[in-house]
Write a structure and sequence with these properties.
Length: 136
């Protein structure tokens, strides 16, 4: 539970030496890439438990039509621990990275999201896998 709490934070922790501090500077927010109104509307649509659909969500927030560079920026925001991958624990709180009032995904939604993206079967989503998922 502690790990999920850390990964779902919208700001990195203050302690030095944590994974969030392995790269200099503050992580950028999704609203610097995407329209905040589009994010808000999408979060309302997927507010109900077990309603999340990554294809529709990425389209609604406008990520599907963004440049490869912007998709890569979004990937790095979702990679909360700066590991170079989005792991299952990070996927659970993916909506909170779009807006602080986003809900956690259910285990069912998280596993479906991971299964859709994880093409090499390593249990995590790399940058190329994420880009391919967004473009679906």
């Amino acid at each position: 539970m502690l790990l999920v709490s850390f990964l779902c934070r919208s700001e990195p922790p203050a302690e030095l030496g944590t994974p969030a501090h392995s790269k200099p500077g503050k992580k950028m927010a999704m609203n610097s890439i995407l329209n905040p109104d589009d994010i808000k509307k999408a979060l309302v649509v997927f507010k109900a438990v077990d309603s999340f659909d990554h294809k529709s969500f990425f389209e609604m927030v406008g990520l599907k039509v963004k440049s490869a560079d912007d998709v890569k920026k979004a990937f790095h925001i979702l990679d909360a621990d700066n590991s170079g991958f989005i792991e299952e624990e990070e996927l659970k709180c993916v909506l909170k990275h779009f807006a602080p009032d986003g809900r956690d995904l259910t285990d069912k939604e998280t596993k479906a999201f991971l299964q859709a993206a994880d093409k090499d079967g390593d249990g995590k989503i790399g940058a190329e896998e994420f880009a391919a998922l967004v473009r679906e």
